[in-house]
Batch of 4 targets.
Target 1
Amino acid sequence: MLAELIAWLNAADDAHPLIRAAMAHLHLVSIHPWADGNGRMSRSLQTLLIAREGVLAPEFSSIEAWLGRPGNTWEYYRELQRRGATYRPDQDVSGWIRFNLTAYHQQAQTVQHRMDQSAAVWELLAGFASDDGLDERVISALHDVAVGGRVRRTRYEQAEGLTLQQAQRDLRDLVTAGLLAPVGRTRARYYTEGPRFPGSALELARTPFTLIAPYLND
């Protein structure tokens, strides 16, 4: 069966790459050739097939991040259990395909939301920096804090192409202005929001996002 699977993987196929990748996953996990690790290897094979089509970004080539969301791993194993303990290549796989297409779709939703949210937070902080008379380059440090909760001097320095002294001075000025608050000492130091950090940016960055089930009404 593995030889047949390998031949199928190497053969030309008109199926959509996402469908083919999902089926490769199902074929390998159903054959179950190893005592352990079949799920991991099958998901890796799925990622490989998508990557072979030129989609290398993990957000779009892998469903691992989506499986890590609450409830999705349980649903994954439930969907596999519906396939039974034996390999049945003639079974109805519509539920499996729907499950995987939902994963791909919601991964794309998540990436799109992050991009839109990040851009909106940046625009808000740019307006704040302009009104407050801040140098435009410090927006990246404020943005990291709003979106990621913290910023390190090394990241800010590299992001803006600054010298060590310039980055240290900028962050020190932001602390003095009450926009950032230092945590830790020396190399371990990072910065979080200070008492004057614009609350609207934090609220926007931390607004919950609800994924849409693309096949809910099908």
Note: The domain at 132-205 is CATH 1.10.10.10 (Arc Repressor Mutant, subunit A).
Target 2
Amino acid sequence: MPTLHRQPEALMDELLEALPNGWSCSPDYAPGDPFAEWYDQDMRERDRDAQPQGVHLRPGEEIVHEWRLIFTREESDRTIDGAYVGVLRGPGGAHQIFAHYRNVDADPAGVFRRWSDHTPAHGIAHWLQQTARATDTHLIERALVEERQDPLQGTSWLPGLSVLVLDTETTGTHTDEDRVVELAWLLADHAPRQWGSYLINPGVSMPADAYAVNGIDDSLLHAEGGSPAQTLDDALDALAEHLREGAVLVVANSAFDLELLDAECRRHGLRPLATRVGGEHLQAIDPIRIHQSLFGARKGHSTIPALAERYVAGGPIGSHTALGDCHATLHILAGLLRQEEQRIVRRVTLDDACRTGNHTSGALPPLALHHLLALSRF
């Protein structure tokens, strides 16, 4: 059976260019590999299990095994083990791609229907990324049960009754001109309790550099994205309700997300989140800013994946989606408080003493909400 290196260079170049950041690919086991016989049997069994997906092929197409690739995400991503990919042949040549995930409980059938708008290489990239996104939903649904049985940090790990973690994915990093394409929130007390996730079609094309980061492409937004005004209005109403009920807002890189949301509200004539909550300004706990306040803002060391490596057992959780980042941010905050509680309290206590000139000695006070908000300000 031919392996990857026998494929046209043009197709390989297109594949590597189409894959979002964090993905890698390798050919199947080369002839003579001691595991090749076992591997072929394993792949044949996976083929048989995946045959029902053939209903999504266009007329005249069939699965053939001219080449096989194994795609994986970065080693630290625990949502995906890999994918088995083959060519779909039809009268006009290789029109689409057959793909079958390994060890992932996600139904990718829906994305097969949208591949007619893609080249084969972009079909692979689109399917991989959207199925990775689907696994984040399964991850959160499991967390609603499993993490409540095994809490992040006891039954009262945060000052306050609950936290509301917010995250967005966007077309870029300029708050005055870029747009929100995905918004998610995760409500938690000692563990995840409830969540919401919204795709938004902003009416502008996704830039290539933004797609490389978040894996959201135009076809996904056209197929599933809601109108900006209505979707944002619904999402902000849900956020405001939980905040009015006493949840504490948590946002990684809060200055960017909250400023961009305010800009979107002005653009679409919507009431901003702070007004819906009942105030002029929002205060948010920002794990990234707290970490930077304690250890400095070294480039590359203050991202969600980097902080997950430091504060979360086992490293990053989920894919780079708004919902996945909400879940990761929750775990980062729990780990940060568990590891650095005394350092946080000491830093704020010393800052307060320097500002007021009222130097006191003795035991440090217990961690409180104002300690976290003080270190979250820019």
Note: The chain has a mean pLDDT of 76.
Target 3
Amino acid sequence: MTQARPLIGVGRIWHKRLRPMQHSFQYRSYFWLLPMRSLRAEPSSLVRRNRWGLMAFHDRDHGDGREDALAWLDELLLGAGVTDATGEVWLHSCPRVLGYVFNPVSFWYAHRADGSLAAVLVEVNNTFGQRHAYLLNGPELGWGQEMQASKVFHVSPFCAVEGRYRFRFSFSGDGPQARGRTLVRIDHDDATGPLLQTSVGGQLQPLTRSHKLRAFFSAPLMSFGVIARIHWQALRLVLKRLPFYRQPPAPERFLT
């Protein structure tokens, strides 16, 4: 397997609520795409792994909190019957910035040895300290194809735990190694129809020192801003008198 290099993306997060009243926002953001198998074979000095840095990656921010998140993913995929994801694994997530991170959602793109997409794991964190994952795989999986999963995990107190998610993952080429642009769409439908529309994406470029510093200084408090904006938008919804749903018990199984 050819060694892949880390990428950094700069773009926007967009969110829109359709009912019972419209509410939308968008923010400039950045993220990185890390080739986890390549980084295991050949660590990059630009990815400060499991140590402090202006921008860093900590394995324990993902999965079950162990010091090797890729080992956790491989075990999870094998346990779910995905036995052919032996190629590169790309992780789309926000880095720790100044030692702090809150990732509302991360995406693991697991490939076969021939470079085709074997599975996508959508890893979701809520502000109550809980984590859940949705595994997307099967013959209908592919770039630009819609995949669905039942919603079972509490994320927002303004949405009931019901309905389904519709996922679509797009790159300007054939997967992360094509670089270019990436876009992830996540729409939430309830029994009435479309309720929320969300997207995250941006322009991908090699993770170099200059690109890294440019992204950092464009938003030096990005990680703190993520959690602050979540609470600010929640306050706006409270003021709009949106119905409030109490937090239900977490799902018995970590994986859907």
Note: Helices lie at 36-41, 69-79, 209-218, 222-239.
Target 4
Amino acid sequence: MKICFAASSGGHLEQIMMLSPLMEKYGGFVLTEKTSYENNTNNHNRYRVLQVNRRELLFLVKMILIFIQSLYIFIKEKPDIVISTGALATIPICLYAKIFKKKLIFIESFSKINSTTITGRLMYKFADLFIIQWEELREFYPKSTYGGGIY
């Protein structure tokens, strides 16, 4: 079984790296954004896609390029499961999981206690397993699974 651990840079990547025991047990690879922010991915294969911000002028162009990059990575690696903590740059690989009939697990951000993320609202519709880290989010995601804090 091969797992793709997908997360944007910064806090999202820090959260996905808390799943290192799963990475060690099952293997797989990490997909994140290409930034100057460095994180130890514990010697796992790491792929970097463009960094994107929904407020920037080239947002749509960058998202198209990320869809292309992610498709290449998905076809090359052939993951059985995609686990993501968001955000925007991970949407394409998550959607490819569904298109290719693979499992998608989405973990809503630890920083969201009383509101949702844009990516979370979208992935809630597609995820096979949607995990919240705060019980308060059950109001927004009634079919979610409470998993407690990832930290």
Note: The first helix runs from residue 11 to 17.
